Amino acid sequence: MAKLELVAQLKGHNDRVWQVSWSPTGNMLATCSGDKTVRIWANTSHSNTSQWECIHVLEGAHKRTIRSVAWAPSGRELATASFDSTTGVWEYDERDKEWECVATLEGHENETKSVAWSSNGSLLATCSRDKSVWIWEVESDNDFECLSVLQEHSQDVKMVAWHPHEEMLASASYDDTIKIWREDDDDWFCVDTLKGHTSTIWAIDFDKTGDHIVSASDDTTLRFWKQYKPNNQEGIATPGNQPKWMNVCTISGQHERCIYSVSWSKVNGKVASASGDNHIKVFAEEPTTQTDDAPIWNMSACSSDAHGVSDINSVSWFPTEKHADWLASGGDDGNVNIWRYVEDGV
Amino acid sequence: MAFSSALVLTDLNDYISPSQACIKPVEVQKKENEEQTSIKVNEAGNYYEVSVDGTEEKLESASISLNDCLACSGCITSAESVLITMQSQEELYKILKTNAEAQAAGRTDDIITIVISMSPQTRASLAAKYDISPMQAHAKLTHFFKHHLGAHHFFDTSFSRDFSLVESAREFVERYRTYMQKGGEQIEAARLEQEEKEQAEENTNGKTRQRRRRARPGDGDANGTASLEEMPMLASACPGWICYAEKTHGFILPHISAAKSPQQIMGSIVKDFYAKQLGLRPNQIYHISVMPCYDKKLEASRPDFFDEEFQTRDVDCVLTTIEVDKMFSEQNVDFKTLPEAPLDELFNKIGKSSSFQNPTLYGSSGSPSGGYLEYILATAARELFGVQDVSNNLYVQTVKNADFTEYTLKSSEGKPLLRFASAYGFRNIQNVVRKVKNNKCAYHFVEVMACPGGCINGGGQIPVPAEETNLTAKDWISHVDNIYRSVEGVRPEENEAVKALYSEWIGQETSDNAKRLLRTQYHAVTQNLTNPLATVW
Q1: Count of CB contacts below 8 A, A vs B?
Q2: Are the C-beta atoms of A7 and A326 separated by less than 8 Å?
Q3: What are the residue boundaries of the Iron hydrogenase small subunit domain, all occurrences included (chain B) (predicted)?
Q4: Chain B: nearest CA to A135, how far in angstroms?
Q5: In terms of residue numbers, what domain contains B327?
Q6: pTM
Q7: Chain A interface, Cβ < 8 Å to B
Q8: Is B415 on the interface with A (CB under 8 A)?
Q9: What digits encode the pLDDT tens for the residues A293-308?
Q10: Total number of domains constituting chain B
Q11: How far is CA B256 from each of CA B140, B160, B162, B226, B348, rounded to the nearest angstrom?
Q12: B401 and B378 in one domain?
C-alpha cells in the first residue's frame, strides 16, 4: 500500500474551504471559502516544500460564500463562482502586483456552484442551482458574452468540467446524470446524458486524453465512463453520429458516505477521491494489456480523517510533472492540506 | 427556470413534490404592540388570532394566484403548469354552455357576447399542420368558432397590431428626438469613433478569440458618457421578455416601449370601442385570444389590463394554438374538411382586390414576431432623416448567432444613421441587457423576443407533426415561417379600416385617448424572500 504524507497544512480561511485549485503555470494554489475570500498560497522555499505562505487574499467582490475557484490556462486570471449568483473574473496586475476583479458575470437566478475555463482559455462555463449551465465567451475589453444558456438538467447542477483539449463540456447534477455538451453551427446542445448513478453527482473529472470521465456521487460510488466515437471498433451504437459514453467501471464499497470530490491526475493517471466519511483515497488502474473497456481500479492509498472529523470538500492533483505526487485538499475545518503520494518502498 | 419559452403541458410527469416548498412570501402586517397572542381553530376550520384581551381576528389564508406562480421560480414548473390550466378551453365551453341555457330559457339579456381574436402566427401554424392556405385556415376557423361552437365574432390581431406598430413608431421618433436634445449627437459621434478604431484594429490584427488588455482608467475611454433612458428602445410585445425584465432587471424598464401588444390593443378595441358600438357593458363581452405561447395568458391577467369599474379583463382568456388544435379533436371536428365561413367585416385585416370579389388576407411585412423592427425603421428613416426607401442603404448582418441580427441604415456617405437589431432567445436577451446595463449598447431599437426564432416558434405553436419524419424542427419552423410570410404585408397607413377606426376611436395621435388606450406601464418586481427556511438545498 502506498501512503499519503502530509506535507503542509495551510491555515488562514475563517470558514470551510470549498475548493482547491492548482495554478497551471506555477507553484501556487488558489482556495475559496465560505468566508467569501479566495486565498492564493505559494511554496516560498525551494528547499523546504513544507513552507507555504498566503501571498494574496482576493476579497470584496462577492456577498456570499465563494463555492468554486478556477485558474485560466494562462495562469494570470481566476474565476470565482459564488452563492450570490454572480461569477467574478480576476486578473493579476503585473504593475501593481495585485489581483483585481475585472468583471462580474450576472444572470444566474440563484447560487452558482462551479466555474471552469476551457482548455484554450477562450470560454468559461458556469452552473447553478437554477438547473442551468451557461457558456460565456471572452470578448475584448473584459466583456464576457453569453453564448448559450443550457437548461436541460432537471435539478441543481453541481459541477462543470471542460475536456482537456476540445471544446466539449461535461456537467454533473442533482438529477443523477452527467450531460455532455458540444457546439453545432448555431448553438450548444446536449450530445449525451450519462445515467447510472443513483444519487446526486457531486464531481467529475476528465483524464489526460479526454476520452474518460470519472464521477463521484452521493451514492458512495465512483464511476468511470469511456467515450466511444462514431464507427468505433467495439460496435457501440452512436446515435446522431455523436460520441456515446458508457460506464465501464464502478468502484463501490470504498467510501461509506457521499463522495464530494474526485481528481484524475493528468500526469500519473491516478484518481483521488474525498468523502464525507472523512477519508481521502487514491486509486490506481490495474495495468493491463487488454483494451480499456473494462478497467480495474484498486485502492492504493488512504488517508483517514484527513481533515479530522470534518467533511473533505475538494481534492486536486498537481497539474504538471514538477510535483506530480502532490495532492491538495480542502475541508469543512477551514484547512488546506497538501499531501504527497508516496509509493511502497520509497 | 421560470423563463417559459417552451412550456408544454404534456411534459408534466410530476406534481409539486414535498421537498420543494413554495417560497411565496406571505405579507404579515407588523403589529404595534408586542403582546402575546394565541391561535385558535374553530369548528369550521377557520383560524383566528386571539389576543390577550380576548378579541378574535380571523386570519387570512395564504393564497397563491396564477400571477404569483408564473412570475416566480421557487418551485418546479409543474405548479405553474397546473395553474395555467385555469385559463383553458374549459372556460370557453363553460360560457358557451351558460349562453345556450340562457338562450333556451329566453333570457337574452344574460347572453354573453363571445369574441375570439386570433394571431396570424397561430393561423400559420394551423395552416401548416393541415396543409391549407392561411385564408382557408382563417375561414375554417371562423366557421368553427362562430357556427360550430356558437361564438359571435372572429377577429384577427393583425388588425390591432397596426395600432401597436403605429404607436411604437411614434414613441420611437419621440424618444430619438429627446435623445438628440439631451446630447445624443455627441454619444453617436463617440460611438462612430470607437467603431472605426475597432475596425482598424481588426484589419491589422485580424479577428481572433484573443483577449485585449483592459483599458486602464485614464487611457481615454470614449464610452464614459452618461446613460440616457431614451435609447435604446426595446420592444414590448413579448410578455415572456416583459416578465423576465420586471423580475430580474428593473433598471431596463424605462427602455421598454410603452406601446401595448396587439393582443391587449384588441382587448381595448373589443371592450372599449366595440362594446359601446354594440351598446353593451364591457363585462357582457367575453374576449378570448388565440396566441402562439403560454406567456400571453400571463399578459392578459396583468392588473394593468383589468377594468376596475366593470370588474372585467380586456382579454378574458388566452388559448394557445395547441389548445385550439386539441379542441378540434374534443369536438370531433375534422378541421381540414370544415366548410369555410365568410370572414367578419370588422377588425380583420382583409381587403378586396380589384380583380376578384373574394377578400384577401393582409398582414405586416418584416419579422413573424410582428414586424416591429421593419416598421419602426421605415417610419423613423422617413420622419427623422427624410429617407423614403430604406432598402437602398440598409445593411443587414447576422451577428454571433442566427437569432441576433443587426440592421444598420446608413446615409449615402456611409455614415450610420440608425442602428437596429433583433435579438431572440434567452442568451441574446442576456447580452442585450448586459450591454444596456454597462452603457455599451449601440443600438437605437432592439426587437426583443423570448423565443428563439421569434413568435412563429412560440411555446404554444404546433410542433413538427409525427407523420413528417423527414423534417427536423428547424425545417418545420422554416415552413411555418414561409406560410406566415405568404400573407402580404400592408402598412397601417395604407389600410383604410385602420385609419378610420383610429380617427373615430382614438382621435388625435397625441391625445389622452392614445395614451390611455394604446400605452401601458411596467412594474419592477422586488424579490423579498422572507422565509429562507422554505428553501431546501
Answers
A1: 48
A2: yes
A3: 470-526
A4: 9
A5: 89-160+261-363+491-518
A6: 0.82
A7: 91, 102, 106-107, 109, 120-122, 129-132, 137-138, 140-143, 145-149, 151, 186-187
A8: no
A9: 888 899 999 999 999 9
A10: 2
A11: 37, 20, 19, 19, 28
A12: yes
Interchain CB distance below 8 Å, B211 and A106: no
Instruction: Give the pLDDT mean for B383-399.
Output: 90
B214–A142 C-beta distance less than 8 A: yes
Model confidence over A83-130: pLDDT tens digits? Answer: 999 999 999 998 989 999 999 999 998 999 999 999 999 999 999 999
Residues in chain B within 8 Å Cβ distance of A149: 426-427, 430
Q: Residue A28: enclosing H or E segment and its boundaries?
A: strand A28-33
Instruction: Point out the residue among B215, B427, B438 whose CB comes nearest to the CB of A146.
Output: B427
Provide, as residue numbers in chain B, all residues whose Cβ is less than 8 Å from the Cβ of A147: 400, 427
B405 strand-pairing partners: B398, B422
DSSP A75-126: SSEEEEEETTS-EEEEEEETTTTEEEEEEEE---SS-EEEEEE-TTSSEEEE
Distance CA A172, CA B187 (A): 45
Secondary structure of residue B281 in the 3-state scheme? coil
Q: Quick check: A80 and A74 in contact, CB under 8 A?
A: no
A142 closest CA partner among B504, B221, B175:
B221
pLDDT tens digits along B277-319: 999 999 999 999 999 998 898 899 888 998 899 999 999 999 9
Nearest to A186 among B248, B402, B431 (CB): B402
Residue B1 lies in a domain: no
User: In angstroms, what separates the C-alpha of B240 from chain A's closest C-alpha?
Assistant: 16
In a domain, A175, yes or no: yes
Contacts of A99 (CB under 8 A, 6+ apart): A40, A56, A58, A78, A90, A91, A92, A93
Please report, for residues A157, B66, B343, the alpha-carbon distance to residue A152 in angstroms, rounded to integers and kept in the order given: 10, 25, 43
Is the ipTM of this structure higher than 0.90? Answer: no
> What CATH number should be reported for the domain holding residue B401?
3.40.950.10
d(CA B198, CA B219): 15
Inter-chain touch A130–B212, beta carbons under 8 Å: no
Q: What total number of domains does chain A contain? A: 1
Closest alpha carbon to A276 in A291, A287, A261, A295: A261
CATH number at residue B105: 3.40.50.1780
